[in-house]
Design goal:
The protein is of the alpha+beta class and 758 residues long. 61% of the residues lie in helices and 8% in strands. The strands form four sheets. Strands 8, 9, 10, 11 and 12 form a five-stranded antiparallel β-sheet that branches. Helix 12 runs antiparallel to helix 21. The chain is elongated.
Length: 758
Amino acid sequence: MATFLYKLGRLAFRRRHFVALIWVALLTLAGVGAASAPPAGNSSFSIPGTEAQKAFDLLEQRFPGQSADGATARVVFKAPSGEKMTDAGNKATVEKTVDELADGSEVASVADPYTGDAVSENGTIAYASVKYDVSGMELEESTKDALEEAAQQARDAGLTVEVGGDALQAVPETGATEVIGIAVAAVVLVITFGSLVAAGLPLLTALIGVGIGVSSITALASALELGSTTSILAMMIGLAVGIDYALFIVSRYRAELAEGREREEAAGRAVGTAGSAVVFAGLTVVIALVGLAVVNIPMLTKMGIAAAGTVAIAVLIALTMIPALLGYAGRRVKPAGAKGKLLGRSRRGTEKTDGQGTPEAHGKPQGQPKANLGTRWASFVVRRPLAVLLLGVIGLGAAAIPAASLELGLPDDGSQPTSTTQRRAYDLLSDGFGPGFNGPLMVVVDAKGSDAPKDAFTDVSDEIESLDGVVAVTPPAPNKGGDTATITVIPDSKPSSVQTEDLVHAIRDAGGDIQADSGAQTLVTGSTAMNIDVSEKLNDALVPYLVLVVGLAFLLLIVVFRSILVPLKAALGFLLSVMAALGAVVAVFQWGWLSGLMGVEETGPVMSMMPIFMVGVVFGLAMDYEVFLVTRMREAYVHGETPHQAIVTGFKHGARVVTAAAVIMMAVFAGFIGSSESMVKMIGFGLAIAVFFDAFVVRMAIVPAVLALLGKRAWWLPKWLDRALPNVDVEGEGLRTADERGADPDADPDEDRELVRA
């Protein structure tokens, strides 16, 4: 692989005009496609195989024309202090609002509060339910404007009016912090390279890659029913890996220049060595993201595939456009350690370099290059491996403790900021009708196989009413055929509570007994039941997903490192970091620690998708640092250094770059904490803290400590397996021996590799 990528890098360097033209053309094509594509339609949220989805599908069959997936709105009215909603003036205002809402072109029905028992017991709060023919994402702006205008007119009449439901659903905003994250990445790149040109290359290529990926997602959003969150997550991950992959290759290019190589040769070697690490790091990310398909939740599958596509684009751009841009930059990208105009200093001790990175005499004796921070840290870890290992494991274990109390759920209007009308409507309904009113359960009774459908409907209603935790049960509402009925159940607990989850299971258990007696099947659905089923489905899929993704990546890393223990150590270290990150998420979003700093206005259960999504994404990103850092160590070991020397050498060349890459990735992810969407906010925080734990605790401390304790055993591989595995040559050994063969005709291309086998 190194030889192929070496040739690709040199070709891109020489044919830079052609390469740049291709990527600009792709960006233009994707941009035109996004601009001309129809607006994204209904991003349906289906969960195949769950009872809630089965009931939802049954409703569409037995209650045709009722738009089961249509948007809903609850216009909540509160009377002024000392008045009631039943007062003549207030009642007239509400009825006028209801009439105005009913005139909408996309409105299916509007329920009058005074005829539908929708006034609170104390008479101060009432609500009107509005049902639309299309989903919230498909509603025309004029319909939304009419809803808001009707609410405002009621406010002008003296009532407090708020609107809940998904009719006012809007595309989530990320806020200015996303831009701040990119700005932090730019500063880190400038500090790392000491040059605006060198720092600008990773940013430019990452933005082009994300532009192509997100524009493609936008262009396909309508056809593939992709939600707005899909493009945000693709942008988040694409920016992070795009900058990091380009950073790895530019850093290696500068190191090759410092060895005195010509620029085209340095570009080829950078792509052949660091590019090989980028390919395998990218493959682990793609495997982790595509593997989300095993959960069998279409929305999650689409999110994973879209993000994986953006990662693949980032890899291709790093391998081709980076060497092309390096060709354009010429001598403006200096060798590693050479003086830069911004920093005005050399990091290579007393050496001074010419334009190609060749040391020049100062007219005074050359001093020894000063050891960098990575070298000093690695030397310390090699001397004290057990102490560093114990400290790292204990620290991550302590951070993971909150994960033991993890509660899962999906966000609803109760998790919205208090500044939104949806959240204020949620609170008003809770005050007037109880917390369970915001999460009603819909029970669907399928009596097609029953001899007495009406009796079955009554039996189910009576049985549910006798259960603990039930506030109200509406009379059964049969369809035209009389074989199916819906019953609305109001719990006495809020939608995301454990008590509501227990009630759903109790209703389902009672339905099983009724079916045995009458032949009528009872199904529980609605958004609350759907959320519960999603949580359970994700929990059940977590272990199979871990086995699949970690297993495939483990096999891939065996090929890369030609070792059994190194990939095993990488996987175990990942588990430590992801558990610690989950603990931090629980502490902030569930317990409320530092919630004000993070902009979390309402604590509650952690989003159901968070654990499995974090496992997938963090595993892929963690392997980036593992591959880049440890391949440098293996390269040194293959070339004859002792295991301890190889660790120090790996940190000498890789620690600075990995540190910069981790800080950049954390900054990019943290930028999404400012999103108005609670799911995006939580994922941004979770990924940022996970990268911190994995890069600085696991890869920088635990990994070298374990390798130091293992010594040569870390690189052991059974001979039969060594012969069976393909030689991908990530460390670029083929490039080294090919160049040196002219200087040493007797050199054996496999000589260094035999050191490991021995």
